[in-house]
Amino acid sequence: MPAPAARRTTADLGRPSRRGEARRGAILDAVAELVTEVGYERVTVDAIAARARASKTTMYRHWPGKAELVADALRRRAESNDPEVTDMGTLRDDLTAAVAGIVRTLTGAPSLLGLLEGIRDDATLRSLVRSQIDENAADVGRAICTRATARGESVNLASADRVMSLAVAALFMDILLTGAAPDPAAQSALIDDALMPILRAVEQ
């Protein structure tokens, strides 16, 4: 008598298959490549499907449109640069690692710089990217500050949610206006002259 088939749990049903993850990765890779090659405005869902060898039906099942595809590709890029908030041992060293991760995200593909016109003209893309930046920056800031407090370092927790958003804004403008990623000295200056003083400020 054959053994009964193993029952699938609710967790199993909600977990993407390896094939599904590979397909999703191929689609987002195609998005990143096309945005880098031709720009957001000229990318079409048809072109993404052709590059990824995927059906549009499959794509629309997971992403309502082009803006959602591009935002998800951008999020995936950010996660690959710094999938976890690295514990470097001190507040300053944690900030150094976080700032380096932001620079990699801003200068990678697809990059925010390459999406400037799309973000300006497409309200859906603008809203998605803004939400991703705000949520990720707040999560990173809280994690870094909570860890520093646990070590016994003096930190103004009221600034935890906004300090990394300020870092993103400063680094973005630097890269936009200079055309190059800030070097380690410039990154250190941002940390020592802006981020550390904000986090060391005493709450009134």
Short précis:
Residues 21-81 form the HTH tetR-type domain. This protein has 204 residues and is mainly α. It is built from ten helices and no strands.
Q: Calculate the mean pLDDT score and round it.
A: 85
Query: SSE order in H/E notation?
Result: HHHHHHHHHH
| Total number of helices | 10
Proportion in β-strands = under 5%
InterPro entries: DNA-bd_HTH_TetR-type_CS, Homeodomain-like_sf, HTH-type_TetR-like_transc_reg, HTH_TetR, Tet_transcr_reg_TetR-rel_C_sf, TetR_C
Domain HTH tetR-type: 21-81
Organism: Frankia torreyi
Protein name: Transcriptional regulator, TetR family
How would you portray this structure in words?
With 204 residues, the protein is mainly alpha-helical. The protein has two domains: 18-72, Orthogonal Bundle (Arc Repressor Mutant, subunit A), CATH 1.10.10; 75-200, Tetracycline Repressor, domain 2, CATH 1.10.357. The protein is 71% helix and 0% strand. The protein is built from ten helices and no strands. It has helices at residues 10-14, 18-38, 45-52, 56-62, 66-81, 91-107, 116-121, 123-151, 160-178, 184-200. The N and C termini lie far apart (75 Å).
Can you tag this structure with a few keywords?
disordered N terminus, transcription, 71% helix, Tet_transcr_reg_TetR-rel_C_sf, Arc Repressor Mutant, subunit A, 204 residues, Tetracycline Repressor, domain 2, single chain, transcription cis-regulatory region binding, mainly alpha
